[in-house]
Design goal:
Blueprint (H helix, E strand, L loop, with lengths): L18 E2 L8 E5 L4 H15 L4 E7 L18 H16 L2 E7 L9 H15 L3 E5 L7 H15 L7 E5 L4 H8 L4 E4 L4 H10 L1 H12 L6 H10 L2 E6 L10
Parallel strand pairs: 1-7, 2-3, 2-5, 3-4, 5-6
Antiparallel strand pairs: 6-8, 7-8
The structure holds zinc ion (ZN).
């Protein structure tokens, strides 16, 4: 069974009221998230469309993902090898997406305990050097995992500290769709990724230690959850983001 049904001809219903962003028209894109694989789940299509057009794309990855819960299916990684395994997977995914990557080298699952201003200073230095027109991160407080929230907050602080004109700051929210909509409303920006959906799948597959089980489930007959299928199909069709510039984000106590 193919897990990639044909591209839908129309996407109007998926992007209603949103601004369509053309990644190929950007000056540069920096994706700033904490774990290897966050980039592929959230913005692989956007990254591929930009890099195909010669736009420099960098994944600024906060950690090595060495505390990842999954070890492959069947297991091929352990706690000791995890760091190297995940960096190799990250390198492979970035090759597929035409992106380069930089690692901040923080400890996985520990980003929330770092001083957000210190992390922001390090992210800001990268943004000053690369001068992107768009930065993508997680929506602080709406990204499920403490590392996600913390990296989103630090990236928000970093962009706020840049001189004008600042890059566009886009945020990915994660979690229950209805709850997110109630808290944040609909996303404002969408990218049509239909032409690069195979690349997004390829990048996700490259993060084998984390995604092998997911693909096995997708490819098996056990996967007949209609909602899951629709969700997957949607995320291989459009990538949707919130605008975060100028949004007030409370600092953690
Ligand atoms: Zn993550």
């Amino acid at each position: 069974m193919s897990i990639l049904p044909p591209s839908p001809e129309r996407i109007d219903h998926l992007v209603e009221g949103m601004t369509l962003l053309d990644p190929s028209a950007e000056r540069g894109i920096v994706v700033s998230l904490p774990h290897p694989d966050d980039e592929s789940f959230s913005s692989a299509g956007t990254m591929a469309l930009a890099s195909d057009a010669g736009v420099p794309v960098t994944y600024l990855c906060g950690t090595f993902g060495d505390m990842g819960r999954r070890m492959g299916s069947p297991f091929f990684a352990n706690r000791e090898s995890m760091r190297d395994v995940r960096e190799r997977e990250l390198a492979d995914a970035c090759t597929i997406l035409g992106a380069r990557y930089e690692l901040l080298g923080m400890r996985d699952r520990m980003v929330e305990f770092e001083d957000p201003h210190e992390v922001a200073t390090r992210i800001r230095a990268v943004l000053e050097r690369l001068d992107p027109s768009t930065v993508i991160t997680f929506y602080p407080g709406h990204a499920v995992h403490p590392d996600h929230d913390a990296m989103g907050l630090a990236t928000h602080l970093a962009v706020a500290a840049l001189p004008d004109p600042k890059p566009r700051l886009l945020a990915v929210a994660v979690g229950d769709r209805e709850q997110l909509r109630a808290a944040l409303g609909p996303q404002q920006v969408a990218v049509d990724i239909r032409t690069v959906r195979q690349r997004k799948l390829g990048a996700l597959r490259a993060h084998r230690s984390q995604t092998e089980m997911m693909f096995q489930r997708w490819e098996s007959e056990r996967d007949d959850d209609e909602q899951m299928r629709a969700y997957r199909e949607e995320n291989l069709t459009v990538e949707r983001f919130y605008r975060l510039n100028g949004v007030a984000i409370p600092l953690p106590r």
